[in-house]
Amino acid sequence: MARRVLITGGAGFVGSQLGLGLAERHPDWQITAFDNLRRRGSELNLFRLQKAGIRFVHGDVRNRDDLDPSALAPDLILECSAEPSVLAGYAAPLYLLQTNLLGTVHCLELARTTGADFVFLSTSRVYPIAGLRNLRYTETATRLQLAGEQNLPGASKHGIAEGFGLEGVRSLYGASKLASELVVGEYADAYGLRTLVNRCGVLTGPWQMGKVDQGVFALWMAAHYFGLPLRYIGFGGSGKQVRDFLHIADLLELIDRQIQQLEQLQGRTFNVGGGVERSLSLLETTALCRQITGRTASILSVAEERPGDVPVFITDARRAMAETGWQPERDAQSTLQEIYEWIARHEAQLKPILTGG
User: Fold this and answer.
1) Which of 23, 67, 98, 115 is the most buried if burial means most Cβ atoms within 10 Å?
2) Which residues contact 199 (CB under 8 A, 6 or more apart)?
3) What is the pLDDT of residues 52-69, one digit of tens each?
4) What is the pLDDT of residues 272-314, one digit of tens each?
5) CATH class label, 1-127+170-200
6) What three-state secondary structure class fits 205?
7) How far apart, in Å, are the Cα atoms of 38 and each of 2, 61, 81, 226, 238?
8) What is the pTM of this model?
9) Are 314 and 158 spatial neighbours (Cβ–Cβ below 8 Å)?
10) Cβ-based neighbour number of residue 61 at 10 Å
11) Fold of 128-153+205-244+276-356
């Protein structure tokens, strides 16, 4: 069935890659990318979207009037708009809450008005900081290793599952996304909308404009490529903190499956990530970046943590795998290699963005 898809945050890393991938897979779909172009580098995606036949609409989810039902007329909304930085929530809480919470409400109002299906991209940051800091782990030569036995419900050797406790503080960023999840559920119940929530961990891949507080793997590769300084922040400054990652192409595969199975999956919440097999410490990431680029970055050790930092987060995505038949495919070596080749191909365009020049 041909669909009319609206992707909010559609010129950003996640939104643009999903739009381009869906356009290639479903040439009969009408896809609109909606974005305020606030994040530097998103403007580079406009030509790519146009070339793929994707309509671009400049607008802001904070402004309800920008989401005009008659002009946009979606039957499916992929809500990818967000201020994605935990640290930004401490520096600019009002903008974060207006974008991440009020913006989602405005998108839901559009769905209510048009009857559109609604897929919401949330975050693993909805899980409380204290609970994540209380996970059991051991220390190896290169990483903090999640222990096989955990004493908290929803935590296991596979990582953090959807049943992990939600009581406690989680950062304004995490709170804004969790609040949005709750509102999504209420709209679904009150107005009969078909909705789905994906709690994504670290997403990465080419075309991610990595920054200190978001897009760590792209940032790490860019720093090695351009010779920029880096820091191991917190947990003794060893660089052993661990995150799992998911290549954006693997997320595309999951989203495409979910759209096709939405009648069966509606109302579900999924943790989405690469899991134990696709996890890296910063120290391990450094070694891979050195191997791929043949270059060494200067790295400063800072022992103290920042607000919201956790030592280990691994996504337990077994529910998503079991209910959709999906399986991540891209590993660390190939993912970082692909990011390196993307930077090399577009060096002139990317250098001022990735180096902050």
Assistant:
1) 67
2) 122, 123, 124, 126, 162, 269, 270, 271, 272
3) 999 999 999 999 999 999
4) 999 999 999 999 999 999 999 999 999 999 999 888 899 999 9
5) alpha beta
6) coil
7) 31, 12, 11, 24, 34
8) 0.97
9) yes
10) 25
11) UDP-galactose 4-epimerase; domain 1 (3.90.25)
